[in-house]
TrEMBL record:
Belongs to the 3-beta-HSD family. This is 3 beta-hydroxysteroid dehydrogenase type 7. GO terms for molecular function: cholest-5-ene-3-beta,7-alpha-diol 3-beta-dehydrogenase activity; isomerase activity. It comes from Myotis myotis (Greater mouse-eared bat). One of its GO terms (cellular component) is endoplasmic reticulum membrane.
Amino acid sequence: MADSAQAQKLVYLVTGGCGFLGEHVVRMLLQQEPRLRELRIFDLHLGPWLEELKTGPVQVTAIQGDVTQAHEVAAAVAGAHVVIHTAGLVDVFGKASPETIHEVNVQGTKNVIEACVQTGTQFLVYTSSMEVVGPNIKGHPFYRGNEDTPYEAVHRHPYPSSKARAEQLVLEANGRKVRGGLPLVTCALRPTGIYGEGHQIMRDIYYQGLRLGGRLFRAIPASVEHGRVYVGNVAWMHVLVARELQQRPALMGGQVYFCYDKSPYKSYEDFNMEFLGPCGLRLVGTRPLLPYWLLMLLAALNALLQWLLRPLLLYAPLLNPYTLAMANTTFTVSTNKAQRHFGYEPLFSWEESRTRTIRWMQAMDSSAQ
Ligand SMILES: NC(=O)C1=CN([C@@H]2O[C@H](COP(=O)(O)OP(=O)(O)OC[C@H]3O[C@@H](n4cnc5c(N)ncnc54)[C@H](O)[C@@H]3O)[C@@H](O)[C@H]2O)C=CC1
Ligand SMILES: C[C@H](CCCC(C)(C)O)[C@H]1CC[C@H]2[C@@H]3[C@H](O)CC4=CC(=O)CC[C@]4(C)[C@H]3CC[C@]12C
């Protein structure tokens, strides 16, 4: 609990606060951070749900803005004690150009760092990604690794490259003097594949299954493990890290933490079936129905079609060479670093995470009918 001197004194800023993860971080802060006085939510697109938050005891300030615009970021950061930077362009489907991805993820992060330095904000939490580590372009497995596991991180795709560069900038900024002379304290959280209420890709896969008559066809061997973590636990980690960074700057400053919980180790498709199954979908096949070389060919064909059609329309299917490689390479984490450094324990059990996600999908299903 808050000590009385600090009760309701703090101003937090969440960039990307209207995104899938950002909304959960915002709601979690309002529930779990008693020292909050003002919560600023900065996003390119503000959600209508923000209105309902404005009636509570914490001042909620919605700021429509663009992280690529340094002056907009600086204005939002000025006077904040803590910045949680979740805004990012999450695109592995070729919807945005590599330049735009770089601009938002790298330049946007530079702008956030500079704004902290110029305005005197001392604590910065960055939402990084497992993708800054891997899977790498060689398809090496990362089997239940931790933050210190050696791994050859080599990226070519714009999204992981941009996240890796942005993470590096955030960590290098740790210790810089901010306005007023105090040191900036930064750290980065690396979620694996996030799931839960509001997950757009899960929604897309669900509707794809409905279009296929309630069936999905196994494409990836069940033995390939893909790390997943519940959005509520990722949000909780952000809240805890932001709080504890202020108490233990020497230990936590400049550190990276994988986001983890008790979600089971499974293949991407088998894991999704934990939610899609109770919504009436079936995964056909105990082994992949198509040989891998044929899937690769289809993925390459999709990439070619995307390129050919680009002047006319945006063709961005789920299957492309990059997403196939991601889904087909084992990448799972097993670590307790967050528990050791700042006492993190998942707030939601696997059963609760699963139930909440299923409930959300079923509500989505009935509202679609
Ligand atoms: N979804 C996942 O599985 C994972 C996501 N992440 C990271 O978590 C963060 C949040 O991701 P999601 O919530 O999944 O994505 P999202 O797309 O739902 O949320 C991103 C938010 O950032 C905002 N945004 C984008 N460009 C902006 C700009 N130029 N200025 C201001 N706001 C902007 C968007 O409007 C959106 O509300 C990202 O940094 C992403 O890299 C990390 C690991 C896994
Ligand atoms: C869309 C992919 C599944 C396609 C299945 C196929 C090939 C049979 O059609 C998803 C597989 C792995 C996902 C990524 C992974 O969970 C890690 C991520 C981390 C992030 O920071 C952002 C999201 C993502 C890249 C995630 C995106 C979807 C997959 C590629």
